[in-house]
Amino acid sequence: MKSFTIAACLLGILCVAQPAVSAETISLENFVRTFNYETRKDMKCSGKELLTLLAKNEAVLIDIRFPEEQQAWGMEFAMKIPLNELPNRLKEIPKDKIIVTACPHIDRSNIAMAYLRTQGYNSRYLVDGLVGLAELLRGDVAREFMEGLSKKK
Q1: Whole-angstrom Cα distance, residue 76 to residue 70?
Q2: Does position 140 have pLDDT exceeding 80, yes or no?
Q3: Calpha distance 61→34 (Å, rounded)
Q4: Nearest Cα to 79, choosing from 98, 105, 58, 61?
Q5: What pLDDT score does 9 carry?
Q6: CB neighbours of 66 closer than 8 A, spacing ≥ 6?
Q7: What is the DSSP letter of 95?
């Protein structure tokens, strides 16, 4: 398990930034060849940053957990696409927004972020994980965020 998590994190670290709208796929080898500090910073998204991006309608959150995990608890404002379904459901994901992948911590979301980048998406992973996001969305923060989302509908 530990080696899987390390491998997932390494895979995510090896990715490079893509423009917000990109139709081109890119190989993992090209990610590695052009990786730099800017890329390392760009592939991450904090919970606070995510809430701001969602409020501005600039991002989409994708919950990549297994369906049973999503049923047990989740963020209703997130797209629900389990990691193993991601390749078959790419057409559901907008290419004109920042795609933030999330799981309870960061192992699976890192894999999803790396995969989406190779498919031409501007993707990031939620560094706080869904556990951190749930902790952030409490009390007034949750109320204000959800009120802001409902005003957009």
Answers
A1: 9
A2: yes
A3: 26
A4: 61
A5: 44
A6: 82
A7: S
Distance from the first to the final alpha carbon of the chain: 42
φ, ψ at 136 (rounded to 5°)? -70, -40
Statement: residue 108 has pLDDT above 90:
yes
- The torsion defined by the Cα of 103, 108, 112 and 113, in degrees rounded to 10, comes to 80
Do residues 45 and 136 touch, judged by C-beta distance below 8 A? no
Look at residue 16 in the predicted model and tell me its pLDDT: 35
10 Cβ contact partners less than 8 Å away, ≥ 6 residues apart: none
CA distances to 51, 97, 153 from 147, in Å? 12, 21, 10
Token pair, residue 104, equals: 């309870």
- Are the C-beta atoms of residues 127 and 46 closer than 8 Å to each other? yes
Specify burial of residue 39 (Cβ count, 10 A radius: 0-12, 13-18, 19+): middle
The amino acid present at 42, given as its one-letter code, is: D
Which region, left, alpha or beta, applies to residue 95 given φ > 0 means left and ψ of -120 to 50 means alpha?
alpha
Q: Which residue's structure tokens are 């890119």? A: 26
Q: Name the residue with tokens 């501007």.
A: 122
Cα–Cα dist 64/31, whole Å: 22
